[in-house]
Design brief:
CATH superfamily of the largest domain: Rhodanese-like domain
Distance between the termini: 35 Å
Largest sheet: 6 strands, mixed
Helix content: 25-40%
Strand order of the largest sheet: 1-5-2-4-3-6
CATH architecture of the largest domain: 3-Layer(aba) Sandwich
Length: about 325
């Protein structure tokens, strides 16, 4: 793989290669790509999720090195994805249980039909220049991720919109006119894709100097030494690792199987925590009937593990 299309892998261990990727491009026949891509991934023992839409591709896959490379090579053989970039990390256990290639209206859902990152987008800032930008007193820094992601880590001094989904972001911006009190807006997300649309939206809303972190938090944690970092906490990732920290090492968080929220050691010591059943984030919004159902699911998953099988409910 050429240096032009591969972002350097971190010095971490683990038998599974994880490749995060996205690419905005006009794809006229994206529906025709689903079946061959699904078959190729399964043939190479690659698992994860890939989203295909008229506006491009987005997703994360993991598996043996040769398998992941085979899928990336195939994608780059397609005219639409010749310049596809990806970011690599490693995992000690399988990050995904199955492979899904899905057809979508958008590869990242904002729900604003007039937004087109291929037409207008903010200015990219590399990780090495990010600290200077967000330390500038003329800059407002915005975390575009969801509330369960920001809860375990963010950049020092960043505004947290406290949104449940990315669809809520446009309304939050429109309700906060004070964002125009400073000339510069700096935005970031996990891998960069949400900021592509977020900066395009901000430009459409009349913001002039709009910047976003190239490669997202993942690239920053890979490139910027921990002693120089302005990142605080861990970065949530959408797989079985749950979180990563500097050098893209796996974090200490676990996942609540009832609500899919990341759990700290403090949350897991709460009396409201029961593995696979509840945590402090969901205990009050779940009924006892829900918890009984989750307990039965956990029991069946345990029995499946004891038989050496995989329980699909997990």
């Amino acid at each position: 793989m050429s240096d032009e299309t591969t972002l350097s892998a971190p010095e971490t261990t683990g038998p599974y290669l994880v490749a995060a990727l996205y690419h905005f491009v006009r794809v006229a026949d994206h529906e025709s790509l689903r079946d061959p891509l699904q078959a190729l991934c399964e043939a190479n023992d690659v698992r994860g999720t890939l989203l295909l839409a008229h506006e491009g591709i987005n997703g994360t896959i993991a598996g043996p090195d040769a398998g992941v490379h085979a899928v990336l090579t195939y994608l780059r053989s397609l005219p639409a994805f010749t310049t596809l970039e990806h970011k690599e990390s490693r995992a000690t256990k399988r990050p995904f249980l199955r492979m899904k290639v899905k057809l979508k209206k958008e590869i990242v859902t904002m729900g604003v039909e007039t937004i087109d990152p291929l037409r207008v987008v903010g200015t990219y800032v590399t990780p090495k220049n990010w600290n200077a930008l967000i330390s500038d007193p003329d800059t407002i820094v915005i975390d575009t991720r969801n509330d369960y992601e920001t809860a375990i880590g963010t950049f020092k001094g960043a505004l947290d919109p406290n949104i449940k989904t990315f669809r809520d972001f446009p309304e939050w911006v429109r309700e906060h006119g004070e964002l125009k009190s400073k000339p510069k807006i700096a935005m970031f997300c996990t891998g960069g894709i949400r900021c592509e649309k977020a900066t395009a939206f901000m430009k459409q809303e009349g913001f002039d100097e709009v910047y976003h972190l190239k490669g997202g938090i993942l690239k920053y944690l890979e490139d910027v030494p921990e002693e120089e970092s302005l990142w605080e906490g861990a970065c949530f990732v959408f797989d079985e690792r749950v979180s990563v920290v500097h050098d893209l090492r796996e974090g200490d968080h676990k996942l609540c199987r009832a609500c899919r929220n990341p759990l700290t050691s403090e949350a897991m010591s709460s009396p409201q925590y029961e593995a696979g059943v509840s945590c402090p984030a969901c205990y009050e919004v779940r009924s006892e009937d829900d918890r009984m159902r989750f307990r039965e699911r956990e029991k069946q998953a345990r029995l499946a593990r004891e038989r050496g099988q995989r329980h699909m409910g997990t």
